[in-house]
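The pair is listed for reference:
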Amino acid sequence: MSDNTIHVRFFARLREELNTDTLTVEAEPGLTAGDILSRLSAKGGPWAQLKGDQPVMIAINQAMAKRGSAVQAGDELAFFPPVTGG
């Protein structure tokens, strides 16, 4: 049986504020990283920040991606806050 899920990971403050580091999402044809962000933010509460004013960086299979990037079954989709430095 094949894995028909997308593995979603959260890093840094997102992991802490969402109180989870991983979850899985059912893969669908044409699904994008932005679609998953929208679905997760619709859960409300701390999840709403995923569509809020603060930008969220995206990586698919450890490569930087954009909201419009397609995700497929077996992919690892990661969300993390922008890295700041001084």
Summary: The first strand starts at residue 5 and ends at 10.
